[in-house]
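From the shared-data thread, chain only:
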Amino acid sequence: MAGSAPPALSLSGLGSDTRSRTLADRAYATLHEAIVVGRLEPGRRLPIEELATALDMSPMPVREALRRLDSVGLVEHVPHRGARVTRLSVADVAEIYEARLALEPLAVRHAAERLTPDDGARARAAFDALARVARRTTVRTWPAHTEFHFALYRAARSHWLMRLIVPLWESAERYRMATWPKGRLDIRQGEHQAILEAVLDRRPEAAAVLMHDHLATTANDLAERLGEGDLFEVEGMPADRR
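Structure, as C-alpha cells:
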C-alpha cells in the first residue's frame, strides 16, 4: 500500500561468520549482506538507533559501518534525513560498469602476463568449482562465481587494482541479486572458459577483450532488466587477436 511504513527491521541470520571481528566490522558485514541480498531494499532509510537495536550494539560501530557502506556506494546520506540504501538505477549501472570495464580487463591482461603455475592451478580449480554449481542457483553459486573472477584478478599482482575492483564488484552484486536472482550461470560458462584459457595461454590482449565483452554483456542485460537499452558495445574478438 502506498505510504505504508516499511516492515520491522530484522537482521537475524545475517553476518553469522563475523564473531571474531570488531563491532564495526560485524555491523558492516551484516548490513552489507542485508543490502546485497535485498533484505534492506533500495531507498530504505537506515536510522542508526534502529540498526543498533537490531544488531544488539551501540550506535557508534553502526555509524562507522554506514560510513564505510557509503564509501562503496551501497548507502547514501541525504541531508537532514540521514542514511538510506542507495536506489537502483540504470545511470548507476552505467557508472559502475564504465569503471569495471577500465579495471577488470586490465587485471586479466596483467594476470596473463604475470601468471605463475600456482595462479593457473587456482584459477582452473575455481573454474571447475563454478562449473559444478553453475546450472542451478544455490547458496554456493554466486560465491563460486566471485572466487573464479578474483582468482584471475589476484594473479595480476596489483594491490591497487584489487582495492578499486572490490567495491565496484560489491556494488554490482546487488543489481544481480535484485534483477537476476535465479539466473543460471551455465549460460555464461563459455565466456568464463574463454577468459580463463586466454589467461592460461598467456594471451593478454585476448584476455582483456574477452573480459570487456563479458562485463559489457552483463551490464547490457542488467539495463534491459531495468527497462533500458544497451549501455556498452560488445567488441567481439577478431580472428587475428584470438
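Strands lie at 75-78, 82-85.
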